[in-house]
Amino acid sequence: MKAIVTGGAGFIGSHLVDVLLENGHEVIAIDNLSTGWLKNLKKALKNPNFKFHEVDIRDKDKLLPLFEGVDLVFHLAALADIVPSIEKPRAYFETNVDGTFNVLEAAKKAQVKRFIYAASSSCYGLTNQLPTSENAEISPQYPYALTKYLGEELVMHFEKLYKIPSISLRFFNVYGPRSRTTGTYGAVFGVFLAQKLNNKPFTVVGDGSQTRDFTYVSDIVSALYTAALSDISGEIFNVGSSGHYSINKLVDLIKGDIVNIPKRPGEPDTTFADVSKIYKQLGWKAQISFEEGVKKLIDKIDDFKDAPVWNEKSIEIATKDWFKYLST
User: Fold this and answer.
1) CA–CA dist 124, 269 (Å, integer)
2) In 231-311, which residue ranges form alpha helices assigned H by DSSP?
3) Residues noted as catalytic
4) 319 to each of 36, 72, 148, 223, 263, how far by Cα in Å?
5) What is the pLDDT of residues 253-284, one digit of tens each?
6) CB of 207 within 8 A of CB of 260?
7) d(CA 105, CA 24)
8) What's the pTM value of the predicted model, to 2 decimals?
9) pLDDT tops 70 at residue 126
10) Which helix (H) or strand (E) holds 123?
């Protein structure tokens, strides 16, 4: 089949592109390279079944022609991160909501056979339902979470009204090779591995007892691919690892000294997906254990040599708006 991957040069998108090509599909990657990297597509660019277009999903006129003859759409393009979304909510709305609308309109015009949306578990906010099921209360705490949820609502609306077969997947704490390390205070793995490479202490938020449903990127990609090949539509699924693991556990696995920094408001103590629905309906289950995933990442630690090295002071400066707006 012919597939489009928006955000195809990004962390998850580039891994998905590789898997689609390995399975014999024709793939078009769309990315404005604001957070993605062409180096992530080094292998794909050698494949005759692959095309790359540096296009912003906010540019509907450039977007429309690329969808001609497309069967599958994987919509992963988005602005991420908490702090920048607080600082620049309009940019997040224009990309994550207006951009999603543009992608949906292009998919509708092309009469695509399947539309898979990459949603975020951040929509649940500070939930008390653990493990968290898909029917838990929606309570986004910051613009990134809100705009990703609004994008999901658009996808489900187009599915119902315009009969575009669609599935939304709510990802929980994705990690793995090619994960983004730039931006305002990157994800924990990028922060810790850069610190380890530079013999700096790990900046552990709070006492490190908070847990996350860390899900390895290859499992996320398998969920995307499984959803695309299914005949189910109009459903929302959590995608998680079937477990949750503390930051202290992560520190034990990658080994190093620590320094504790203030606990941040608006962050849940635990994220833990109820994945029973996706297992029952799609037969999908994560395959990579946390220990195995961390080992895989440590084996590629040199990939993080150019990542920013954060410390207590630089994190304090970068997250000042986080504390300003999310503190109650």
Assistant:
1) 13
2) 247-254, 276-282, 290-299
3) 144
4) 23, 38, 21, 32, 11
5) 999 999 999 999 888 999 999 999 999 999 99
6) yes
7) 27
8) 0.96
9) yes
10) none
Element (H, E) at 306: none
Among 87, 195, 184, 86, which Cα is nearest to 143's? 86
Q: Which class does domain 176-213+242-271+288-326 fall in?
A: alpha beta
d(CA 229, CA 231): 7
Q: What are the residue ranges spanned by the domains of the chain? A: 2-174+215-239, 176-213+242-271+288-326
CA-closest candidate to residue 320, choices 143, 141, 83:
83
Phi first, then psi: give them for residue 239, nearest 5 degrees. -130, 105
Cα–Cα distance for residue pair 48/92, rounded to 1 Å: 34
How far apart (Å, rounded) are the C-alpha atoms in residues 67 and 107? 7
Q: Which DSSP string corresponds to 219-237?
A: HHHHHHHHHHHS---SEEE
Is residue 109 classed exposed, middle or buried when 0-12, 13-18 and 19+ CB atoms within 10 A define those classes?
A: exposed
The first and second tokens of residue 125, run together, are: 């906010």
Residues 6+ apart with CB under 8 A from 70: 2, 3, 4, 28, 107, 110, 112
For the chain, give the mean pLDDT.
95
Contact criterion met (CB below 8 Å) for 159 and 59: no
Stretch 50-79: mean pLDDT? 98
Token reading at 167: 């599935």
Residue-wise over 149-163: b if at least 16 C-beta within 10 A, else e? Answer: bbbbebbbebbeeee
Task: Check if the beta carbon of residue 297 is closer than 8 Å to that of residue 189.
Answer: yes
**CATH architecture assignment, domain 2-174+215-239:** 3-Layer(aba) Sandwich (3.40)
